[in-house]
Amino acid sequence: MPLRDQFFPLLNAAGIDSDVLADPNTAHIVADGQTLVSRQTIPGLTLNIDERGDLTIAEINITRDSRITQPVHLCFGLLQGLGSQHFRIHIHLESGAKAQFIAHGLFANATIVKHSMEKTIAIDEGAELHFMDGHIHGVSGGMEVKTTGKVSVGKHARYSGDFSLTAGRVGKLDFDESVQADDYAVVELVSRIFGHENDLIKINEAVNLNGRFSRSMIKSRVALEGEARADIVGITEGRAEGARGHMDCMEIIKDQAIGQSTPIVKVSHPLAKITHEAAIGTVDKKQMETLIAHGLSPEQATDMIVLGMLR
Amino acid sequence: MPLLQIRHADFLVGQKKILDDLNFALEEGDVHALIGTNGTGKSTLARLIIGNEDYSLSSGQILFDGQDIGQRSLYQRAQAGMTMVWQEPALFEGISVRDYLSLGHSLANLSDCLAQVGLAPDDYLDRLLDKSMSGGERKRIELAAMLALRPRLCILDEPVAGIDLISIDNILRVINRIKQNGSSILLITHQEDVAGIADQASLLCGGKIILTGSPDRVVSQYKSRHCLICNGQECGYAAA
Fold first, then answer.
1. What is the average per-residue pLDDT within A274-292?
2. Spatial CA neighbour of A214 closest among A236, A189, A182, A239
3. pLDDT at B236 (0 to 100)
4. Contact B89 A293 (CB under 8 A)
5. Which ipTM was obtained for this model?
6. Which CATH number does the domain housing residue B32 bear?
7. Which of A287, A294, A307 sits opposite B103 (nearest CB)?
8. Worst-scoring range by mean pLDDT, A216-230, B144-158, B164-178?
9. Whole domain around residue B60: which residue ranges?
10. How far apart are the first and last CA of chain B?
11. CB contact under 8 A, B149 and A294
């Protein structure tokens, strides 16, 4: 079976129709470890890939005012149980361009695997990027994921980043992203993680609202059970007139798990305003009572609340 | 035999008696209004009946269908056919109205349930029960869930709280529809027009049921602000 086709079951398990990789109107990269399995470009999008042994560098450029109607799929994974993958990806949206990227971290077979992703994203004036990054892990807990992102969002541009790791064991996760927002830019960062057993989760998200009337939202949703630990740091700095930022962290803790949330608010302009809210604790009692009174068992109610929060 | 019966119920918080030798009965198929001023123990009684884990009788019995359910959990009581609409229903992230109305393996027509509470199914079925929903919308969803769930006993704690005035008649019609579906209803309220739709009413004062009878009679007594037991000297009702 061609290597690309071996990804199909992993993609389907992730809820993605594997036919997208055969669609000539859908740009994609598929990589098994450091092996480039498949790539496709489309009009308005250029793709250069530099394979350097233990590091693969992908440069993606979307030309001015291009509207990429189909999501760009980045399938990074490992078909084998052991190994590593190190990617560096540069994405540039020229002014007025619009695109959605869906990155799939396909590691359902992984037992001991290191996955490293360094991402730099430049979104020029008036451009829009929605970047979804969803990981599917196996049950071994041997995954180690390190993701860094440096994002610049130009004037009147929009960026939304959505990272989720809710299927399988997390293993060790170190997620670090910082965003610079120019005038009237809009930034939304969402992370959803479900930690089990002795998973270790570290999330650090920072937004610098450098531009006038720039806006941001950092939203973290984490569920922990067993002896999992999570340390969530959200940083928002308002540096200009009219800058508005909000951080919203919610962690549901079960068993012996430990969650920590640290919101850091900095304001260096008198007309900027940053707010935050955080809730860490067991499953909300009122929600539980309501669902049980509607016929669910306590276990079913807990699952529904946790999965709803991570949805 | 009443569907729900409470016998000689006492409930203390510290040294304070919230319920004091309370006796109450709700007949199967009835809407029974429980009326009283703020702080008389109406919601406390509801929590004791439904089996909230923080509430259990200091003494006395709660019988459902003739069975003493005092030691049963909320889950066991729900499985027996009891449910409750809280005064301020919970909000949920990531749970849609459709998911919620489908709980309890409901086979009901969900669109019809929503339409009956005055919510357009096309606008609401896929909405989330989160902070984007107003208190009034959330309350209507809860009543729609009662239509879908068809419990044997439905406790409605202040069902029109948060509902705009022009929609109250619609909510009262929904309560009647829940009854027509076969549910018995304990209707907790301090609004006389709401109590007026009940088959029976009881007035709660100073932790006791001081009167049970027709809604007209009980509401009339309620409006007199006059406690039949202590003349307001002990419970403070007359002075409230």
1. 92
2. A182
3. 60
4. no
5. 0.93
6. 3.40.50.300
7. A294
8. B164-178
9. 4-89+153-224
10. 36
11. yes
Q: Which amino acid does the sequence have at A104?
A: H
Q: What is the pLDDT of residues A64-116, one digit of tens each?
A: 999 999 999 999 999 889 999 999 999 999 999 999 999 999 998 889 999 99
CB contact under 8 A, B90 and A297: no
**Residues belonging to chain B:** 240
Mutate to test the interface with B, among A250, A284, A294 (most CBs of B within 10 A): A294
In a domain, B28, yes or no: yes
Contact A59, A93 (CB under 8 A): no
Among positive and negative, which fits the CA dihedral B230, B234, B239, B240? negative
CB spacing of B103 vs A309 below 8 angstroms = no
Please count the residue pairs, one from chain A and one from chain B, whose beta carbons lie less than 8 angstroms apart: 58
A259-269 per-position pLDDT tens digit: 999 999 999 99
The verdict on residue B232 lying in a domain is: no
Domain ranges of chain A: 3-283
Q: How many domains does chain B have?
A: 1
Instruction: Report d(CA A202, CA B29) in Å as an integer.
Output: 56
Structure tokens at A205: 């998200």
Q: Which residues of A touch B93 (CB under 8 A)?
A: 221, 250, 308-309, 311
What residues in A contact B86, CB-CB < 8 Å?
Answer: 286, 289-290
B102 to chain A: nearest residue by CA?
A: A294
Separation of alpha carbons B61 and B77, rounded Å: 14
